[in-house]
């Protein structure tokens, strides 16, 4: 992918669309467990250290994972995991964090994936790509773009397990996902915000890719 997706430094309170594909566009998630492990690593990094220590580790026997490491430094606003790529919408709330967050996330996942599937070498297509989101309008439409990805699989977006759309529609509450940052742009009333986001998703605005421009994946 072109150099336009390379962010040299991440700014405090900046929001970024971060994504990557499998090398040669190969699948990076082969079954339900693969998706769940990726989400588990996200969860362990984003929860507070105290909350992250609760419960057992069902996935990673050997890991460099440092629980709660990025709590207060990085917020996850939205996500979607597809068979051969992923989308994350991240906000850097501290002075730094996203670079180390992504390094830890992908290193741990590749170690798990290669061990489980008896393979060696790179899993992802080079370094992850990052594009800054600079306006509220872009932010809303990037979240919609991310949540609509399952349509490429001929799956109804609101019925897809591996995205944050359930949380944005009030059907699930994930305590390591910060939906309020976007939903509060629609309404301060939680139930109304869920309805408004549903209507926004269903609006089908044809020019949304023009609004988000280079923030979309090529």
Automatic annotation (TrEMBL):
Residues 11-149 form the Transposase IS200-like domain. GO terms for molecular function: DNA binding; transposase activity. Pfam families: Y1_Tnp. InterPro entries: Transposase_17, Transposase_17_sf. GO terms for biological process: DNA transposition. SMART domains: Y1_Tnp (SM01321). It comes from the Bacteria. This is Transposase IS200-like domain-containing protein.
